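B., you asked whether I could sanity-check this one before it goes into the benchmark set. Here's the sequence:
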Amino acid sequence: MARKLKSDRILFLTTLLLVCLSVVMVYSASAVRNPYDYLMKQLMWVALGLAILSVVMGIDYRNYREPAFIWSFLGVVTVALVAVLFMHPVNSASRWFAIGGLGIQPSEPAKLAAIVYIAALLERRMHRVNDVHHALMPIALVVAGWIGLILLEPDLGTSLAIALITGVMVFAAGLSYSYLTIMALTALPAVALLIMFWDYRLQRVLTFLHPWDDPLGAGYQIIQSFIAVHTGGIAGRGLMNGIQKLFYLPEPQTDFIYAVIAEELGLIGATLVLICFCVIAWRGVRIALRAPDKFGAFLALGLTTMVVVQAFVNMSVVLGLMPTKGIPLPLVSFGGSSLLINLLGMGVLLNVSQHATSEA
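And here's what the prediction gave me:
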């Protein structure tokens, strides 16, 4: 008799909890500015995302390593990343396709495509992962090409996220520490140059170091975030009772929604959100260790890294531990592209969990 496949229930419930929190907090953060517009759009994205998750959960993840699927996926993403550069800029950035009044970011599916491609390649070549021409070069060509296109949008945050996901996956495949050191020593000056020669990026770093030097200008957003987190106290002001979202904290429903959570739900609510992402990290790594093949293991690791790293970066920015990056809180912030891709990724991760063979 065939084994009945069961998904990781803890991971599923944690994901569902964060998505439900998203609907509530997006409404709370945006109700004063626009009572229903953000809420209705978020409900639409959540419904679509959960539908995609439920469908993807039932598709055997091993179908994604088929060459026809991988190369089609890579081709579509590459064309989209090139085409978006010719779109009308929004806030001096060409990152979105406007479809029916909604913005679609091709850099979001690029993260997922990179994970699938790297996982499939490492499954076949991890025994020679330290062979530059055999394993590292094919990965570097695709990833570096996409990072270059995304930097042209410009979007440094997503570029760094893809680079980090790639680094984690090849490290797990057994990449030599010497190669990792070379990669780090090459990346650090490159990132420094990308910051120094773009005034707005340099300003973000300076603001991170000295936010109170310009409290009504460059430091305004992060200072308002500090105030929101501080005034939330232990239990918070209460749901819908936050003050900083009332035209003090810019765009509180997106990148700084964690500040709204901290103010309204306090340290308790903010810690629970942090715990949810720690649970996703735990279950994701567990799924990777228990996957029946290397492709499933690398796929699970990449998807877990995609969600967890972005979450910790977002929360670190809100708490003033990192410069502003413009990265949303996965599964929680308002926005379609990020929510859909993260829910799709969770669906694939849940499918991998169905095929677990033994305890790690």
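One thing to flag: The beta strands are 97-99, 102-104. Otherwise nothing jumped out at me.
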